[in-house]
Amino acid sequence: MFWLSVFNTLLYTGVASVFKFAIGLYLALLLNQHMPFKAIIRALVLIPFIVPTVLSAIAFWWIFDSQFSIVSWSLRKLGLIATNIDFLGDTWNARWSVIFANIWRGVPFVAITLLAGLQTVPSSLYEAATIDGATPWQMFRYVTYPLLTPIIAVVMTFSVLFTFTDFQLIWVLTRGGPANATHLMATLGYQRAIGGGYLGEGSAIATAMIPFLLAAILISWFGLQRRKWQHGESND
Amino acid sequence: MTDVLASKVASPKAVLAGVTADHTEGMSYLQTLPRRLVTLYLPLSLILFVLLFPFYWMAVTTFKPNEELYSYQDHNPLWIASPTLDNVRKLLFDTPYPGWLLRTMTIAAAATFLSLFASVLAAYAIERLRFRGARAVGLAIFLAYLVPPSILFIPLATMVFSLGLFDSMWALILTYPTFLIPFCTWLLMGYFRSIPYELEECARIDGASRLQILVKIILPLAVPGLISAGIFAFTLSWNEFIYALAFISSSENKTVPVGVLTELVQGDVYNWGALMAGALFGSLPVAILYSFFVDYYVASMTGAIKE
Questions:
Q1: Would you tell me which CATH number, out of the four given (1.10.3720.10, 3.40.50.920, 1.10.150.20, 1.20.1440.60), belongs to the domain A2-118+154-230?
Q2: What is the pTM of this model?
Q3: Residue A142 and residue B263: Cα distance in Å, rounded?
Q4: pLDDT digits over A46-62, tens only?
Q5: Any idea where the domains of chain A sit in the sequence?
Q6: Could you give the ipTM of this predicted complex?
């Protein structure tokens, strides 16, 4: 039971973080371009992050409903599936559903923070790269990415930490079910401590999260310092 | 490390409303319109659609009558044939929802005020008093922010019980600062750092005490920082869930997120209309606050702090 929750947590954090990073970076690059209604679009992007997670999770609960899911309805209308998808009742479906909801909530934070980093990259660098005949991919790989690395490290640390210790989404959507398939360490700890009344057991599960968190912090810390050194700045 | 973090992560709100560093138009004029359609507008609208659809769905469900809600054969679920306020009326008059709203607002405001007060003092001391170990304290406060509520709720629960605060507003007002103060302090430290020392030196020469400097020089200059820290803190405490779930038991004492989840779901019958109405009206206050303050925050940040 405990090891199952560790596995779930690692899967949840790993998959969600990779997607959050990829989609978030892509969205940030898109938002960094010049377009009409830029300010409004950027403000809209952040809305999923601003509203209470529990309340948007309730909306997802309804979207993932087994009978009246709008997703199932749309896919059926399009002729892609024959019967409704049981989003939260099936082991792996439930896992992917909660991961999707987590990505949905996390992408705005990653995107907007990376956008803040992107805007500190002077456009003269891109102009120079264009004159040197760089392709868009080369521009991203050799101009944008190196300058963005410190911010990426910080953002992803935050993202990993808060995904790893996530509680709200799971508690609303599945409460750890079906058959404990989506129990994270945080939800299991809560269930044992407050639900079951075993405070000690709950604390043990919660404390077991700390080594993972420390590892995440240390990895990004040393990653960050290495970068600083490479850029020829003094360590502090 | 804290320097890097404070300078890089505290700024997204400003960026959001379109404060660009040196980005003028860039080189996007070199691209043709059809190309931009495929590489920019199409993926962007797709992502925006996914990001905003749950809110649309929330709103649609709120104003739908029940017979439309549960018959996808006769009605197109994406639209409302005959909008109704039944769900809203039910929510406002048949449930303790208005009480939860008021309560959440009180708790969030009190916790925010308390945290801001403590954070101003802490951030000023760490940045400007230059005592031994100030940097270590700053780092420790930052690390405290990284310890998530899902670990802290058990020790806090035993404290709340032994102090006899269980099931009262004070349980939440006093526990929310455990994550608000580190966050606000860390944000404010960045702001205080950007205020020039010279101003304080002048004030010292004119005979101002430390407290006078803080109140009359630093705080007026840090208003944008205070506002952004305040909004963040308010939003965080509005959204908080695990403490409110663990420390409050009676129905009328609950906060909005907990109340909607635990009280509006009765048995196996989910009243989706009322649930969605609860979610919608619980989200609106923070959304309005956010949209209202984004401009103010950016305008004052670019104006007041930059010398």
A1: 1.10.3720.10
A2: 0.85
A3: 54
A4: 888 888 889 999 899 88
A5: 2-118+154-230
A6: 0.87
